[in-house]
Amino acid sequence: MNRSTTHIFFCAIAFFLFSVLAGCGKNADGPKLITVSGKITLNGEPLPEGDIIFRPADGQGHAYAGKIQAGTYSIETEVGKKKVEIKSMRDVPGKTTEDNPGEVVNVREQIVPTKYNSESTLEIAINEGGADSADFTLEGDPPQPQK
Q1: I need a surface site. Which of 78, 87, 100, 136 has the fewest CB within 10 A?
Q2: Boundaries of every domain in the chain
Q3: What superfamily does domain 34-94+103-138 belong to in CATH?
Q4: Concatenated DSSP letters for 74-100?
Q5: What's this model's pTM, rounded to 2 decimal places?
Q6: What is the annotated signal peptide range for this record (predicted)?
Q7: DSSP category for residue 26
Q8: Helical H runs in the chain?
């Protein structure tokens, strides 16, 4: 090996060792997650489909999201106080749009009142021991479309 090849070789080894050692002490598994599941109804009926999002109530940290199917959900999230957002869209009968030229798609609208999604008032406290179940009973009319 010539001198420049030897230098490159040792630099590569040093970089590799630094990368490995820098990772030591970190929790490779990430934060402890708690499974929360439950039922969601809107005006007494199971919410057919949608999304549920748990955001840290203090705005610091990660948000966790899950799917709602046939009025049920299951989501993994970190412990702490969470703001809950629930969203569900449906096709508007007889309305389509062609936002992308040549691509006709159904117009969709939010069916969950804004007080449960974009302006959510829902909160839940996730404890270390886990929350076996958290049901959400939603009431109200869908938001009115913007004109």
Answers
A1: 100
A2: 34-94+103-138
A3: Carboxypeptidase-like, regulatory domain (2.60.40.1120)
A4: EEEE-SEEEEEEEE-EEEEEEEEEEEE
A5: 0.73
A6: 1-22
A7: S
A8: 3-23
